[in-house]
């Protein structure tokens, strides 16, 4: 790669670094501890911290770090897509992709060389047994229902719809629930404030007004 070429991958970016810089960067991406990485690359322990700062300001190393994060992002997206594709292979597979049934009640396993990669991915295992000199084949498929459930969850298909009916409690209802009828107005007010975290309420009338405003806003 020439000097004017911009590295497109992390491996390309590493190729333009000298050996010590390469080791430093490979160590640095493990935990992003510059001082430790500089020591691992062979730099002096006394100057490791300042050397790490110096290395991290170099253009080639900055480009390499940028490539590293871009590669990691692409790989993460690729991994998510790969998982979805593998689940689709299992979820949309059918037993008849692997076995065929005759009118005589015979079950015949299809030649594995003729199976597609999608079908092969849905097979969990194959067992061979012998009965009266006849080789029998048993095919165990991955859990189709479990794969479809995971796909459905991934696509947000199983979100529960909640029917929530909100009931606004009036001042009188809450007073009765808290047993405030036998208290003096001041005692009732203090308990109300403690129970509900009410700030700035200094009288029963203010409390009534607060609940009246809340009722109007619902």
Q: Your description of this structure?
A:
The protein has 218 residues and is mainly alpha-helical. The chain folds into three domains: 10-81, Arc Repressor Mutant, subunit A, CATH 1.10.10; 95-141, no CATH class; 171-217, no CATH class. The protein is 54% helix and 11% strand. The protein is built from ten helices and four strands, in the order H-H-H-H-H-E-E-H-E-E-H-H-H-H. The strands form two sheets. A two-stranded antiparallel ribbon has the order 1-2. A two-stranded antiparallel ribbon has the order 3-4. Strand 1 and strand 2 (107-109) form a beta hairpin. Helix 2 runs antiparallel to helix 3 (34-40), helix 3 (34-40) crosses helix 4 (48-56) and helix 5 crosses helix 7. It is flat and about 95 Å long. It starts with 9 loop residues before the first helix and ends with a helix.
């Amino acid at each position: 790669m020439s000097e004017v070429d911009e590295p497109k991958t992390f491996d390309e970016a590493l190729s333009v670094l000298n050996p010590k810089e390469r080791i430093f960067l490979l160590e640095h991406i493990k935990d992003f501890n510059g001082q430790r990485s500089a020591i691992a690359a062979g730099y002096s322990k006394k100057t490791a911290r300042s050397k790490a700062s110096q290395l991290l300001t170099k253009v080639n190393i900055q480009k390499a770090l940028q490539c590293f994060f871009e590669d990691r992002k692409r790989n993460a997206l690729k991994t998510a897509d790969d998982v979805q594709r593998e689940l689709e292979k299992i979820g949309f597979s059918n037993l008849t992709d692997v076995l065929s049934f005759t009118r005589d009640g015979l079950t015949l396993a299809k030649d594995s060389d003729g199976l597609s990669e999608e079908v092969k991915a849905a097979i969990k295992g194959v067992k061979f047994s012998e009965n009266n000199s006849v080789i029998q084949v048993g095919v165990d498929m991955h859990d189709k229902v479990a794969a479809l459930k995971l796909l459905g969850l991934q696509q947000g298909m199983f979100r529960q719809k909640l029917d929530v009916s909100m009931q606004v409690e009036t001042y009188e209802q809450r007073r009765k629930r808290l047993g405030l009828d036998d208290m003096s107005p001041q005692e009732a007010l203090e308990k109300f404030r403690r129970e509900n975290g009410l700030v700035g309420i200094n009288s029963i009338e203010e409390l009534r007004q607060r609940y009246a405003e809340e009722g109007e806003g619902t």
